[in-house]
Amino acid sequence: MAGLIDTVAWVHLDRGRILGVRSRGKRLFYIPGGKRDGSESDHETLLREVREELTVALVPETVAHVGTYEAQADGYPAGTMVRMACYTADFHGTLSASSEIEEMAWLSLAEKERTAPVDHAVFEDLAAAGRLR
């Protein structure tokens, strides 16, 4: 295997759609989140990344694991995998794209192809559970 990119993501659903973000200069959307800094825990990474990307504060005591997914990393050499631990959580504040985020969108199951490959399984699982339409 060429490598593993370890990430966490915030699964935020509203009216049967999931929040996706697109970084400046990128084509695909992804579930908000990112890579840990040093020895950060999943929760620490999640809280920091969501605050940096969407300017809201997640409520730590509401963080709940949804699932962990792996797929080929978009834009990396074949064999480079991404592992994404997904969590839900309540938040305080108003969702707003930070300077690194070019666009936010509410995505349906039919729009999963607009997202990174690792997100596809998340979309399928959420749809199977009746949470994403």
Q: Number of folding domains?
A: 1
Q: Which blocks of ≥5 consecutive residues have pLDDT under 50? A: none
CATH homologous superfamily?
Nucleoside Triphosphate Pyrophosphohydrolase
Question: How does the helix and strand content classify structurally?
Answer: alpha+beta
Termini Cα gap: 34 Å
> How many strands, which pairing sense, and closed or not: the largest β-sheet?
4 strands, mixed
SSE succession: EEEEHEEEEEH
Strand order of the largest sheet: 4-1-7-6
Instruction: Please tell me the overall pLDDT.
Output: 96
Supply the CATH architecture.
Alpha-Beta Complex
- Shape designation: globular
Helix content: 10-25%
| Strand elements, count | 9
Which topology does CATH recognise? Nucleoside Triphosphate Pyrophosphohydrolase
Q: Counting H and I runs of at least 4 residues, what is the number of helices?
A: 2
Summarize the helices and strands and which ones pair or pack.
Blueprint: E1 3-10, E2 13-14, E3 17-23, E4 33-35, H1 42-54, E5 57-58, E6 64-72, E7 80-88, E8 91-92, E9 101-107, H2 117-128
Parallel strand pairs: 1-7
Antiparallel strand pairs: 1-4, 2-3, 3-9, 5-8, 6-7
Organism: Streptomyces xiamenensis
Keywords: Hydrolase
Protein name: NUDIX hydrolase
